Input
Amino acid sequence: METENQKDCEKLEANAAPFASRLGDWFDAHARPLPWRVEPSLYRTVVSEFMLQQTQVTTVLPYFERWMARFPDFRSLAGAEETAVLKSWEGLGYYSRARNLHKLARQWVAATSKPANAREWQQFPGVGPYTAAAIASIAHHEAVAVVDGNVIRILSRLSNDGRVFSGNSEAVKRLTPLAAAIMAGAGRPGRHNEAMMELGATLCTKTRPQCLLCPVNTYCAGYQAGRAEVLPRLRRRQTRSREVQRALCRHGGNILLQQYPADARRLAGQWELPECNFLGLSPVNGACLLEKSRGIANERIREQVFAVELSAAQQTRLNRHPELHWVPLEKLDGLTLSGPHRRWLAELLAPAQK
Ligand code: SF4
Output
């Protein structure tokens, strides 16, 4: 069935080579000098792609530099203890990425025949189609297109695609053939993919795309139709709201923290301020010291931390729980705290430590 933008797609596909050439020239002249681009290697590409999954470049930069100083290659990462790997990842979130990257390094070191294309990379832990395409095109020059949220946005605008997609995965599925057709016109696959990502991150942004500065605006049907900003059309996901109450319990120079078991499905081995519910302390009887709001996937979470004084009986009961530990304040730096807990603890403990 012919879609409303069939002609725009065909025009774009016919112009794939000049489009890719103009985009590539713009990338060469304007790309941000990111460390994995300035000094590229297979290992640096793999690490940067893992870190950049669901995380912005500015957040990744300091982590990347520290990571390279600590684990400069696959071998050093493969030989590291998991606790050291997670500690170096602390604050980047989505820790399964760190675990998978660690496993990947071990698998890569052990492999007698190293992966050399996107299909082979997908056999490695944590490597989905997007990451595999990015690694294979950048490190092995394979002509396979990356398609993520940024690329969906660019392609739907370039082809003036007004279809309503049920979500990112449907859009990826529908737009992958167009991405592949344009890739066919590109001389250097890695540079083309990086240029698409750079365009999405810097000019073809979610809101207020800078079309006048865009190197490919003459090929952009969405811009010419005056509706770039409303594309792509993705069905809105419903956001759920949730409230979490946590306890700050202090005893001498110690605070009570929960460490998730090593085999837990979420947050394995990591530390958090315990939830009041988990401690059997709801409703909470204490002052609210801190209130934060954060979003994880399609959840909006309101987090409150209460000052809780435990009775002797409560302490005795909680001391018996294997996941709860009284941690001396001076040992906090050595623990891997989950998500924003280190920041919260710094705020909560700052006045007391002055
Ligand atoms: Fe995006 Fe505008 Fe460039 Fe089209 S012209 S690709 S909408 S920045």
